[in-house]
Design a protein that fits this description.
alpha/beta; TIM Barrel; nine-stranded parallel beta sheet; two-stranded antiparallel sheet; 9 helices; globular; monooxygenase; SsuD_RutA_monooxygenase; Luciferase; FMN; alkanesulfonate monooxygenase activity
Length: 282
C-alpha cells in the first residue's frame, strides 16, 4: 500500500513546504484540491500550485483530490496535464469526479450543469477528449456536450500510454463503478458513509470481473495495474494507524490518502506535525 497526503489548509508557501516535508518523511503522494469558492476557505488554483509542487519535489506522486472536470474545458485540461506531467518527470495522476455542487464554481455562477446526470455526461466527454489528446495524434470527437474537430496536442505526456486517471466510484452504483473500471483506478465512495474494508473487498472483486470482461474487447487498454484509493483519517498512534491501514490493504486497497478537513482540529501546523510523523509502517 502507498500513502498520500492532502494539503487541505494553508497558504501557497505552506502547501509547497508541506509537500516537501511529505517527500522527506516517506509519503508516496501529495495532493492539493480543486475548488473555486468554498465558503471562506483560502483556495488556490490547483494547476498553478501543481506546477510549483512539480519543480520543488523529486519523487512523490502529485495530483488533486479531485478534479471536477464537468466545469473545466477538457482541451485546456489536456494542456495543463501535459505541462505538469513534463515538469514533474511523469509523476502526475489525475483523480476525477462529478464535483460538489455547493462549490460556488457550480452553484454560484450561471451556465454550469449542476445535475448529477449532466455532470457525469460532461465528465465522460472530458475523459474521452483527454485520452485522444494525450495520444499525440490528430483527432476529432463528437460527444454529448463537447465537439472538437481536427485537434493535435504535442508533446505527448511523459507517462505512457497515458497519465493515470483515478475516477470516483459510488459503490455499489454499477454506472459510476463502470466508469472507474475503464480507467486506472477508483476512489470509492459509500452511499451511506465511509467505505469499509468489506466494501473494498467486494468492489475489488466486482472491478476485477468487469475489467476482465472489458479486456476481451480492448486487451491493450487493460494491461496496467488498477489502483484502489481510499481517503480518510488514520487513527492516532503508529500501531492503531498501521492496523487501520492494514485492514484496507488486506482487502485490496493500493493507496490510503490522508484527507483531513476538520477546520476545528486541522491547521497548517497540525498538518505539518502529522506529515512529519510519516506514513504507517505495514
Amino acid at each position: 500500500m502507498r500513502f498520500g497526503f492532502v494539503g487541505s489548509f494553508g497558504s501557497v508557501a505552506q502547501t509547497v513546504a508541506l509537500a516537501q516535508e511529505a517527500e522527506a518523511h516517506g509519503w508516496d503522494g501529495f495532493f492539493t484540491w480543486d475548488g473555486i469558492s468554498v465558503g471562506e476557505l483560502d483556495t488556490w488554483d490547483p494547476w498553478t500550485l501543481l506546477g510549483a509542487l512539480a519543480v520543488s519535489t523529486e519523487r512523490i506522486r502529485l495530483g488533486a483530490m479531485i478534479f471536477p472536470l464537468a466545469r473545466r474545458r477538457p482541451w485546456k485540461v489536456a494542456r495543463e496535464t501535459v505541462t505538469v506531467d513534463h515538469l514533474s518527470g511523469g509523476r502526475l495522476v489525475l483523480p476525477v469526479g462529478l464535483g460538489a455542487v455547493d462549490d460556488g464554481g457550480f452553484a454560484g455562477v450561471s451556465g454550469e450543469t449542476t445535475s448529477a446526470r449532466g455532470r457525469a455526461e460532461r465528465l465522460d466527454d472530458a475523459l474521452a477528449i483527454l485520452e485522444r489528446a494525450w495520444s499525440g495524434e490528430r483527432f476529432s470527437y463528437a460527444g454529448t456536450h463537447h465537439t472538437v474537430t481536427d485537434l493535435v496536442f504535442r508533446p505527448q505526456p511523459v507517462q505512457r500510454p497515458r497519465i493515470p486517471v483515478w475516477a470516483v466510484g459510488a459503490w455499489p452504483s454499477e454506472r459510476s463503478m463502470g466508469r472507474a473500471a475503464r480507467w486506472d483506478g477508483v476512489i470509492p465512495q459509500g452511499r451511506t458513509g465511509p467505505v469499509t474494508p468489506d466494501d473494498v473487498r467486494a468492489l475489488v472483486a466486482w472491478t476485477d470481473e468487469r475489467r476482465r470482461a472489458l479486456a476481451a474487447a480492448e486487451p491493450e487498454r487493460f494491461l496496467g495495474d488498477f489502483d484502489v484509493v481510499v481517503e480518510g483519517v488514520l487513527p492516532e498512534g503508529p500501531d492503531a494507524a498501521a492496523a487501520h491501514a492494514r485492514a484496507y490493504a488486506d482487502a485490496g486497497a493500493t493507496w490510503w490518502v490522508e484527507s483531513r478537513w476538520d477546520a476545528q482540529r486541522d491547521t497548517p501546523e497540525t498538518l505539518l506535525d502529522r506529515v512529519r510523523q510519516g506514513p504507517p509502517r505495514l
